[in-house]
Amino acid sequence: MRAGFLLNKIHHFDIIGSTNDVARSLIAVGCNSGEVVISDVQTDGRGRKGDRWESPFGGLWFSVILFPYNLLVSKMSIFSIANALAISKGIEEKTGLIPLIKFPNDLYINDKKLCGILIESSSSLSYINWVIVGVGINVNVDIKDLPNCATSIKNELKKEVDKEGIFFSVLGQMEMLYLTLDKLDSFIPEIKERAIEISENALVY
């Protein structure tokens, strides 16, 4: 993987069921590492436990496809948490807000959920063949369109923000992570600084 690879091909949709499902379809027919699927609205977004994830207009709903050559199955826990760190840093870079990581990979502000991450993968023996990192960030979403347990960047800052700028900032931070998969342990200090609830076992691989 090389710098800028996440910008090689972005598949944009106005409305689809799930960006992760479209990403799976792309893998099935053949695609490249770093391709991104993004939609203005998802009608069938889901969380880690299969729970419905509200994905109305104004949010960032996207999935990143990776074919990592050196990612061990045993590293998937810290890989997942490190993605949450990267997204948190990308949001901070553009808004000044510092979302905190709630294990395994959700982001919270003021005790309310701002971002959910759904990671799906396939492996052979000890190594990951492909991984899809699905991301849902409540950016310019009206609070009335969200569950009581959730918030949005717009709600926290009391104004609309540059959604596209946040998207590319987050992608930049995620790319830096993917270019250093052999050094995942180097992210542990930063993860601990931003963690609300995290098990030490999750950081051991």
Can you offer a commentary on this structure?
The protein is an alpha+beta fold and 205 residues long. The chain has one domain: Bira Bifunctional Protein, Domain 2 (BirA Bifunctional Protein, domain 2, 2-Layer Sandwich), CATH 3.30.930. Helices cover 28% and strands 27% of the residues. It has 5 helices and 8 strands; from the N terminus they run βαββαββββαααβ. The protein has helices spanning 19-29, 76-95, 153-157, 163-178, 188-193, and strands spanning 10-16, 36-42, 60-66, 100-102, 106-109, 112-124, 127-137, 195-197. It has an 8-stranded mixed beta sheet with strand order 1-2-3-7-6-5-4-8, with helices on both faces. α2 (76-95) packs antiparallel against α4. It is globular and about 45 Å long. The two termini are 23 Å apart. The mean pLDDT is 90.
